[in-house]
Amino acid sequence: MSKTIIVSNRLPLKLSLDGDKITATPSVGGLATGMKSVHTDGDSLWIGWSGLTDDTLTTTQKEKVAEKIRQENCAAVALTQQEVDDFYLGFSNKTLWPLFHYFLEYAKFEKDQWETYQRVNERFAKVILEHTGEDDIIWVHDYQLLLVPQLVKEQRPKSTIGFFLHIPFPSFEIFRTFPWREEVLQGMLGADLLGFHTYDYERHFLSSVKRILRREVSFNKISYDNREIKVDSFPMGIDYDKFYSSAKQHMDKSLEERSELQQRLDSHKEISGDGSKLILSIDRMDYTKGIPNRIRAFEYFLEKYPEYIEKVRLIMLAVPSRSEVSTYKKLKQETDRLVGRINGKFSTVSWTPIWYYYRSMPFDNLIDLYTSADIALITPVRDGMNLVAKEYVATRVNGDGVLILSEMAGASKEMNEALLINPNNFEEFAATIKKAIEMPLEEQQSRIKILQKRLSRYNVERWANEFMKSLKETQQTKDIFVSK
Ligand code: ADQ
């Protein structure tokens, strides 16, 4: 019987070590949730890095970690600290991440890191080959593993391989600047099915294949090395029911059951009175998310419409991310400085314009934030999809609330009923915040209702199932193509 193999940089587990005692807690991220239906007991295996570096573990710890990982239907790819530095923090996050998000000025092209990236991708391929047979279906995820499809296909030509990119694929004019552009495209073309969040990313990819590799592309098919490769878009959804039902339970909580955070959020409405509004933003602290831009735009809004001083508050949750990388350190400093400046400039005795949290929060607190926010302000300068925008909509159980969403997020392609903005246009930004504040309840409800209907239908389980279905179809076409 064929198995399904999921491959991602990180395993869907968080391992913690206390001497020789190992505990594993499942990850709650979008990918882990989405793959739940695919990663069922018995006939599937998840391959990835455990998050623990091999050179810091004792032999007993290594054995225990391996056993724990096996019990969870997973297999680990071992990485040393040096490899994590050069492959993950280095090439993945200092080269591919900025390049694919149009931050050319941040992209570092270092030969040593590229070599480590190749070596680590080879190690992933080796672990895949050790754990799979000819008939297994392999689904590789994201930009850390762009070379894996080809490395596996070369060794096992009959295997069925899917690849999904969670970040944007940039336009040809950006991608052509990349020194290893041919190698990366060839690496990806080892797959039988290549999936992207949006049609635009798919189009950019096809254009690079045509112009850099000079391959024949017809509609969404590529002829390559005697194979036919399919390219398609699969917009990732969320676990809609989980967010909706958690929000519903939250609404039923009595005053005594409310969290400290919730009480603090409630206090804003009590102090600011009628017409007061909470605006929420949640992101990883990443330069692609447009955090400094958002703070400046909010400042401009308060200057332009001073009648909202003491009425409107921005709650900004930034989750620490890649804080070892210098561009992220600088971003954090800039954010701290901007929040300080604006709070210093506008605060009154009873009101501060921005409440800023730099930390991760438990799921229940995320729900507190989503359900309390009258407006969600999701304004990345570039984002593959953006699940936060979708989660906010799912928690609006009363149908009220307004989503302001950047056109530069992949999610904007499916969320036309949101207020879509170009985050670099401050006039539009400020006017849209005003429009959101003043939007009549009936209009809010009609927009949210349509969005909720779409999100509940195209949830994350459906995303995973549609990708798998399309990947299995390539198995059949492959047989026909080969026999021609
Ligand atoms: P991310 O850049 O991480 O993902 P996003 O899609 O917004 O961005 O997902 C973030 C997730 O983290 C959300 O599910 C959110 O609930 C969760 N989260 C945020 N803040 C949290 C907090 N404080 N505590 C706990 N959880 C928190 C990348 C791409 C995106 C793409 C996804 C999926 O950059 O564009 O949408 O992958 O493909």
Automatic annotation (TrEMBL):
EC nos: 2.4.1.15
UniProt pathway annotation: Glycan biosynthesis; trehalose biosynthesis
Entry coiled-coil feature ranges: 244-271
Reactions catalysed, as given in the entry: D-glucose 6-phosphate + UDP-alpha-D-glucose = alpha,alpha-trehalose 6-phosphate + UDP + H(+)
Keywords from the named record: Coiled coil, Glycosyltransferase, Transferase
Group of enzyme by EC: transferase
Keyword Translocase: no
Known partners and oligomeric status: Homotetramer.
Family label: In the C-terminal section; belongs to the trehalose phosphatase family. Belongs to the glycosyltransferase 20 family.
Name of protein: Alpha,alpha-trehalose-phosphate synthase
